[in-house]
Amino acid sequence: GPTVAQRGRRPLPSFGSLKVPDSPRDLTATAPSAPSTEAQALAHYHAALAHQASGRVGAAVRHFRAALALQADFPAALCSLARAQSSICDWSSREATLVSVRASLVRQLDEGACPALQPFDAFAVPLELPLVLRLAQAHAAAAEAVAASLRPLLPPGGLCHPPRDAAAGSGAAGATRLRVGYVSADFGDHPLTHLTRGLFALHDRSRLEVFCYSLRQSDRSAPRAAVESAAEHFVDVSSSDSAAIAARIAADGIHVCVDLNGFTSGARTELFALRPAPLQVGMLGFPGSSGGAFLDYLATDAVASPPQLEHLYSEALLRLPPSYLVTDHAQTLLHCGILPPTAVSAAWLRGGGGGGAGGGDEGGGGGGDSEGGEGWGLREILRRRYGLPPLGVVFCCFSQLYKVDPATFAAWISILRRVPGSVLWLLRFPLEGEANLLAAAAAAGLPPERFRFSAVAPKAAYVARASLADLFLDTPLCNGHTTAADALWAGVPLLTCPGDAMCSRVAASLCTAVGCGPQMIADGGIGDYVERAVRLGTRRVELLALRRKLWARRLSAPLFDTRLWTRTWEHALRAVWLRHCAGEPPASMDVRLGELEAAELRRENAADALVRRARALQAGAVLPAGLQPPAGLQPPRADTRVAAGCCAAPNDGVT
Question: What is the per-residue pLDDT across 417-447, written as a single tens digit (0 to 9) for each?
């Protein structure tokens, strides 16, 4: 296969005393007739990677362990083992594995090697944040090394940047538009595109000229088509090496180049190390620092990255109000069948009879083939069809399971014990995690009836289905990002417990942006998180009041105001460009729209919200005969292929 330099990708990380081939077929070409211990370890390692890519994570774990049993000094196998085990909540020997991962990481950093641990995988490992920054810096240095090898492939004279024209993007007559380039491997049916496609459609073309550079071929999905049509220039560069892509970006005269990947699957970090644009900004895909001098700014906000933690970033911080996470729910998920708080019945508020105890399909007052119990509404009937307790409290978390660590699960167990008849609703994300979590619950004395698992579903169906839950329990180590925004849009209150890392503060940012921060942010630690969940689970009137507050603010909250977010982002891009034109170095800043402009945008959004609310009510009021579920709430068929394979690349970002 092509070499690393030819591919324009970053090199393989250090594998200790082992030299790992670029592909499994290379192993058969170099292995001796009598395989050495080293060759056997490599064979197990590659077998593990193949199993993991196919969604057979349990088999991958066994092969990673076999590789380490044969060759103890194998950091890549060790870190891959930790990642695979986390993805399916296999916590056997977790503490010993994490101690070994940390020791291996420190040793590789001290030796000046590129660590085997990937920066994205560090989100699920409890490391000190200065060490996480060192990890990012090491991978950034590796990207710089790849970029250095690619420079001979650049046009003669190198890459040329556009002149420092302060009028660019001003909107003045005859002024050049500010050319902004977005680079991503995730333009397709991916959470990042679900969040951003409205951004590309709403950009002010009188001031900005927008380019999208796709690092992956089209998946022929509707989200991909939406971005292709919304962007003024959409360029598929998936078949080009990083040097050619950098040359193309420079030739397009891009003023500000935006990295939507960071250290996630399909990234071309070395592309930004080549510096194709005078200003480069990290945004959305990777909730943390790149560690590299090649990104001047990181888009974040004052909650996700408070000023007192600024030393944990190599970039200057662009703090956007009120949240750095752009959303497109108000445009794309308005009519997906979300149930409003009015669907909550008096029977549920009373705690219901037999329907709340133990979950299951038994409903208070129901019997035989009855559609529902006494006093039931549509919500209770739909819950029963999904195997949820019609009158019990349904806690939920729809994040990928790698975000669930033993401490979080112990907190959930405590909550379930103290809220009678409650259940915890999770996704088979991936499939193999279900058995491991049920085993952990059984060891803690909770029966499987206190848990519900659903298959991964298409976006609209999943968001509508989520509205059947009562409270979303966030994962403190690494928060829900897109999933948290989905829950809030579905009208489901969320409870989060922020840490210091950006990835552990995103949900707090979203709760603040939707106007419910004080009720949803447990800033007193994990104990506060548990107590708040128990309080809401046992005081249903209070929980319903929070749900109604969220529902009332949902359509007009800044979190879901894509137009306001887009104008604020454009203001930030213009501000950093003006700073560059003045010859000033990048510096952190709190981005603020002018009061008059912000007020006008809020008025526009309020008017749009009235229209959206009317349309939503109209869409939700028309139900088929027999109280069939609205669109998106039909119980899905089990999709074991999707559910099993969704963990093949847990570093896809923005989940």
Answer: 999 999 999 999 899 999 999 999 999 999 9
